[in-house]
Amino acid sequence: MSLRKFVGVIALSVTALSIPNLLLAQGGVTYEDILQGMADPTRWLTYSGDYTGQRHSPLTQITPDNVKRLVPVWTFQTGTTTRGRGFETSPLIDDGVLYVTGSNNFAWAIDARTGRAFWQYRRNLPNDLTYGASAPVNRGFGMLGDSLFMVTLDAHLLALDSKTGNILWDIELADYRIGYAATLAPLVIDGKVIVGISGGEYATRGFIDAYDPATGERIWRFHTIPGPGEPGSETWPDDPVVLARGGGGTWMNGSYDPELDLIYWGVGNPNPDYYGDIRPGDNLYSNSIVALNAETGELRWHYQFTPHGVNDWDSNQIPVLADIDWQGEPRKVVMLANRNGFFYVMDRATGEVLLGKPFTATTWARELDENDRPIILNDGSKGCLPDPWGSTNFMPPSFYQELGLFILTTRETCSTFVPEEPQYTPGQATFGGVVFTDRDNQYGALRALDVQTGELEWEFRYPSPTFGGVLTTASGLVFAGDHEGNFMAFTANDGENLWHYQTGSRIWGAAAMTHELDGRQYVLIPAGTTLTAFALPED
To answer: Which CATH number do you get for residue 416?
Structure first.
């Protein structure tokens, strides 16, 4: 694969800011460092903090007893326009330097002590963007050595020098002109950078890729919509055109089990979203989780949460990995709260479904049958819970293993779906219908689920459906935010609200992260176009 350089309107700009007496990170990040996860509390080296997706920190300096004293230490203002979408990133940190991406393909290296930037990267984008123009977000960096890896709205993968922000290599993932884009934080494993693709509402075919971190050469590709004659193609019409535009975006981050050498990734909706008559069958591997061999990209197992989806219930939620005691036996599991309103626990080696149970007031289905398929009660034409945004979405959850609690942001909403036969136009989104949402009867909630039963242990209600993610810490705290801009701390065992801070912007798609620096614990929350760092007052 040849590497593509910036041409025409595709350009870059790196601005180095003169800040005295500050040094950028030295030494670089190894795969072994990432394997350690948050064992070194001064580092946060991958999107969820480690490969498990648990988003649970071992830090204990901030506690339920002192969290009320938490104050903002600094804020970083991006100054970027968002078209209604702001930060959805998870900052990374190494050697006191934060690495942050923003909307419209901006990125920064920031001094974690002061909030001042060392450098800023900006990518000029083509004027004919399709998907990337409507959702101009980026969810973060991957990192290895002295390189940062970032995807772009025009469907490229970049490697940047962490010390300067300069481009090391640049490759094209897919053609943005037909609706492809990329927004996720790359997953970096041993010798590979793993990325997915956006654009499931366009006439596109989803995939998951692995690239060489040193050169940008593609190592393997797994298509989430099988080609003619491939396993899973029998769940689609025998029509290569339908398969080629089948959707199945992979626009959110996956997780990784180094012991099994398996990558776990959520797959989005089939195309078109709401009109299923032109694609009879289950439509694999849309609305599924896939487990892939990390070395080859070969499919090890899959599970489809919503067969033949007609409600836009992407399964692009973070797969959460854990080793737990299950009915008296140790079990390696993967957990996922799905957009369709069900919470699932599966054996992550085999894909066996151990638990599938609603966590919201779903009306489309209430249970699984003996084959672990949902028993469908309502396709949405009679009014359906949840709406197209789902009972939850891409905002990260957290798993508090000591308490056995899966803690997530939920949405209680209802919509009526009206399908219409679509007309395909190259480069234009195709939904195949319209949706009417009951906006007078909806709310959001922070909920804690017992992973053994799926039962609700506690909840804290928000005034409106929200997209804020979740962070937990070993001191017994939960950090979460809402659509109204409130960043809050709760007790993990019972959900008592202990503290809040009004950020001034909605918290959308992002979750807090935490780290230690100079013996002090910091908690960071991206909200709107502002990144704010909090800590206890210095005595």
So the answer is: 2.140.10.10
